[in-house]
């Protein structure tokens, strides 16, 4: 299954995706409050999707995460990505549950690009400025500007 074919809600299906980046997320209104780990996945159809590991599960999953590796993620919930947290073009996100598994794929890996670039010209960036619709400035190694 690819991220574009995921249905909303809890799912027993799985996806194969490369973990491009992950970072700790804080509450915007209370920066000292840890909300969890945000992940950025890329699938074999070159589609990026965000993942969220809630704070109470972060320690369980953190030691399994390695940027650049391909994983099989299973037993998760698919939700709508709030615009203020949106860092991809995808409207959905993957929310980790207690039963979510994330296993590295070593053999028979699908071909998944190691990176994705979003080329934006100045006018496109000017429109996005101060809208909270995308977090383009957060990933300078993944974005090129003409």
From TrEMBL:
SUPFAM superfamilies: Nucleic acid-binding proteins. This is Replication protein A 70 kDa DNA-binding subunit B/D first OB fold domain-containing protein. Residues 13-103 form the Replication protein A 70 kDa DNA-binding subunit B/D first OB fold domain. InterPro entries: NA-bd_OB-fold (IPR012340), RFA1B/D_OB_1st (IPR003871). Pfam families: DUF223. Gene3D superfamilies: Nucleic acid-binding proteins. Transmembrane segments: none annotated.
């Amino acid at each position: 299954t690819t991220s574009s074919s995921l249905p909303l809600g809890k799912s027993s299906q799985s996806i194969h995706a490369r973990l491009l980046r992950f970072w700790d997320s804080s509450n915007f209104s209370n920066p000292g409050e840890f909300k969890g780990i945000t992940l950025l996945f890329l699938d074999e159809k070159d589609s990026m999707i965000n993942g969220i590991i809630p704070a109470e599960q972060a320690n369980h999953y953190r030691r399994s995460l390695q940027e650049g590796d391909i994983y099989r993620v299973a037993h998760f919930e698919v939700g709508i990505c709030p615009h203020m947290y949106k860092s991809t073009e995808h409207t959905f996100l993957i929310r980790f549950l207690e039963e979510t598994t994330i296993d590295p794929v070593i053999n028979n890996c699908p071909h998944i690009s190691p990176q994705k670039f979003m080329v934006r010209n100045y006018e496109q960036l000017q429109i996005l400025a101060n809208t909270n619709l995308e977090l383009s400035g957060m990933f300078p190694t993944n974005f090129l500007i003409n």
